[in-house]
Design brief:
This protein is of the alpha/beta class. The protein is built from four helices and seven strands; from the N terminus they run E-E-E-H-E-E-E-H-H-E-H. It has one domain: 3-Layer(aba) Sandwich (Rossmann fold). Helices cover about 25% and strands about 20% of the residues. The strands form two sheets. A five-stranded mixed sheet has the order 4-3-5-7-6. Strand 1 and strand 2 form a beta hairpin. The longest helix is centred in the last third of the chain and has 16 residues. It is globular and about 40 Å long.
Amino acid sequence: MGLDHNHFKGDRGGLSPPVGSRGKAPGGYHDDQGRMTGVRLRILCIGNRYFTQEDDIGPRVYDQLLRLPWPAATEVVDGGLGGLNLLAFFEGPERVVVVDTLSGMAPDGEIAQLSGAQVACLSDDLYDHAAGLPYLLQWLPRVNDGPLPDIVVVGTTAGAPPGVIEEIARICLAFAECPENG
């Protein structure tokens, strides 16, 4: 992909979690050249933490994941509203689970789980403010230099109750233990 991984130096022997991740990131660090080391599963939580009535699922699941233990070689990233800057987070791991607010994919309050290809098909190939995740996933194979990870998108409608947020977090972490059924 050739995209720069912005990172900061921590006290982990020259290895640093990527910008956007907070807290622990076992096994998911950049070396001094910006290459990912040891990440098998990356959970990329996207959305707007400050506009909770429409786009709050990713940030809420991210906060829940920070409260839980993670399996080895798992990284959790707060992608915020990164747009196409999120392309770099698809480089390196075997699987990326994207957590986002999903409208019209399941009844209100129910969890939807889709493949990256299913979501990419929703793009109309036009880029504007509303292009979002379908556009990013449609362009990913065109700009990625290496093998693509397996991509799963998990989410629900905005304003979901805490129990649904906790279940989405459990589903995300289950992909590290048993990748085929999450």
